[in-house]
Write a structure and sequence with these properties.
By secondary structure, this protein is mostly helical. The protein contains four helices and no strands.
């Protein structure tokens, strides 16, 4: 499969084919999947979204170096960045907002992969 202009960011084109191959494996294994964004009754969904929103806020504070003043290492790390975006997506109820957050999750994943790949080149 060719990825002409869709993936133009340096580093992303390199693993776009890997992502596509993984999606093909998922489709072969599970078929075309359709699931709710969040299961449970309305109360359970609201409670879960509130919890995810709190977790997103916690990771935002961690990423800003404000969470635990006793921790001398306030550098950003990929785990915190990704989890903040994931929890923001999980905290949303509006499908358009969920989608927008998932685009951010995908972009962070792409950046993290590109960073890992650049480390391999540097060795």
């Amino acid at each position: 499969m060719s990825y002409p202009t869709m993936f133009t960011t340096p580093g992303v084109r390199q693993f776009a084919e890997e992502i596509d191959a993984e999606r093909q494996r998922q489709i072969a294994k599970f078929g075309d999947q359709h699931h709710p964004d969040l299961s449970g009754d309305t109360t359970a969904q609201c409670d879960a979204r509130d919890m995810f929103g709190e977790w997103a806020d916690n990771y935002r504070e961690i990423n800003e170096g404000k969470f635990d003043p006793r921790d001398s290492d306030t550098r950003l790390d990929w785990t915190g960045i990704l989890l903040e975006e994931v929890y923001e997506a999980l905290a949303e109820a509006d499908p358009a907002k969920i989608r927008a957050e998932l685009i951010q999750v995908a972009a962070v994943c792409a950046a993290w992969i590109a960073d890992i790949d650049s480390r391999e080149v540097q060795r």
